[in-house]
Design brief:
By secondary structure, the protein is of the alpha/beta class. It folds into two domains: 2-42 and 198-388, no CATH class; 50-191, abc type-2 transporter like domain (abc type-2 transporter like fold, 3-Layer(aba) Sandwich), CATH 3.40.1710. It is built from 14 helices and five strands. It has helices spanning 2-17, 19-40, 61-71, 94-102, 116-128, 150-175, 199-229, 232-236, 243-273, 281-306, 309-326, 338-342, 346-358, 367-388; strands at 50-56, 86-89, 108-112, 139-146, 184-191. A five-stranded mixed beta sheet has the order 2-1-3-4-5, sandwiched between helices. Helix 6 links the parallel strand 4 (139-146) and strand 5 (184-191). The radius of gyration is 31 Å and the shape is elongated. The two termini are 30 Å apart.
């Protein structure tokens, strides 16, 4: 055990002592994540604005007045002494607004239904002729909101209530009425929608997998073939160090370095891009160990097939690039043959499992299936490695 820990310590120490290893293992993945997040992620820190859509189905002068009342709270409004807390998204139909809400692109829809102004007139007329005992319901302004975002929803509902209360006061005052029956009422309609796509949360697991894959595959492919070519492994096995202990030490150093990479990437994402994830620690550890072991077996596969240092590096490149671009590391694979191709890549199940454990956008595959597919890939890579790998130079 002491020899295994010593070799792990040496590998980790070399990571921080060699500038090239430090760059490719930590600095380069951080730079890639930062570049992609600035290109495709939202890093704006401007005015606070809640994305909403306003649908005027009534299309009367009264309803248009209400729309203007809400537009005064828009972030682009020039209205003074009003908190500009809404980012109003332009829509043409109720269906378009509902579609945006279900996709998570907005958090609420403020809807003025058909017959809104007629209902207000009916309420006012009913108050003047109470002896007919005509029962009329108040005109409704409907707020459909994202059910999972209770705090943001409350801000929108409070604002709509404020506009509605002011309108009720104006209507009753202009009509000369003094009654507890209000012409306009507010109706809330919670809608369950999926979370909005957050590119920073999506790409972080992808960069983690890329960093682990490149460091592990090229690290093992280059180091082990170099040790074999120079007969260093042959001399090492003359000592009490066995082949099993050597493999365990390489696996231990791979796991340690991989978690160091994860630490720096997560810290960078939280500091620069305000990352918020709901991590399931047991699932995260389970999928992390499985994915690292898979990349570890890939590194030995490249070594076994390549034979020489140059050959092993070439094999690692051939294996890495398809898995990097078709393994859903950067973007979801949609349309045509791409989803099918992505499911043929072990990195797809590694990154999907990480996203599931972090509670961000994934393919909807259960975690046990991600683990199962990784286990199948590990067994396949290991069997091929056992067939072709040589500890000594031929």
């Amino acid at each position: 055990m002491k020899s295994i820990l010593s070799l792990i310590f040496i590998d980790v120490k070399l990571l921080f002592r060699e500038k090239g290893s430090l760059f490719w293992s930590i600095i380069f993945p951080i730079a890639i994540m930062t570049l992609f997040c600035f290109m495709f992620g939202s890093t704006s820190k401007g005015n606070f604005g809640i994305k909403v859509a306003i649908v005027d189905i009534d299309k009367t002068s009264v309803s248009r007045g209400f729309v203007k009342g809400f537009e005064a709270f828009d972030t682009h409004s020039k209205e003074k002494d009003v908190p500009h807390m809404l980012d109003i998204v332009g829509v043409k139909t109720e269906e378009e607004a509902d579609a945006l809400l279900k996709k998570g692109k907005i958090v609420a829809v403020i809807e003025i239904p058909k017959g809104f102004s007629k209902q207000i007139n009916a309420i006012i007329s009913g108050e003047f002729i109470k002896f007919f005992k005509i029962k009329t319901n108040p005109a409704n302004i409907v707020v459909k909101y994202k059910e999972s975002d209770a705090q943001t929803m409350q801000v929108v509902v409070d604002l709509v209530k404020k506009v509605t209360d002011r309108a009720n006061e104006e209507i009753l005052r202009s009509a000369g009425l003094y009654t507890k029956r209000l012409p306009i009422a507010l109706s809330e309609m919670p809608v369950e929608v999926r979370e909005r796509f957050d590119y920073t949360s999506y790409i972080l697991p992808g960069v983690v997998v890329m960093a682990i894959m490149t460091t592990t595959m090229f690290g093992i492919a280059e180091d082990v073939t170099k040790l074999v070519e120079k007969d260093i492994l042959k001399r090492m096995f003359v000592t009490p160090l066995t082949k099993g202990r050597y493999i365990l030490s390489r696996l231990g150093s791979t796991i340690t370095i991989s978690f160091i990479q994860m630490f720096f990437l997560f810290i960078t994402a939280m500091l620069l891009f305000n990352l918020h994830v709901k991590i399931n620690i047991p699932s995260f550890l389970l999928i992390s160990f499985a994915g690292i072991f898979c990349m570890f077996s890939l590194g030995f596969l490249a070594t076994a097939l390549g034979k020489t240092r140059e050959g092993a590096t070439a094999i690692a490149n051939v294996l890495m690039w398809p898995m990097m671009f078709f393994g859903t590391l950067w973007f979801p694979m949609t349309g045509g043959f791409l989803p099918v191709l992505s499911r043929m890549m072990p990195t797809t199940y590694f990154v999907d499992g990480l996203r599931s454990a972090l509670g961000v956008h994934n393919m909807g595959i259960p975690l046990w299936q991600d683990l199962l597919w990784l286990a199948i890939w590990i067994m396949g890579f290991s069997l091929i490695t056992l067939r072709y790998f040589r500890w000594e130079k031929i």
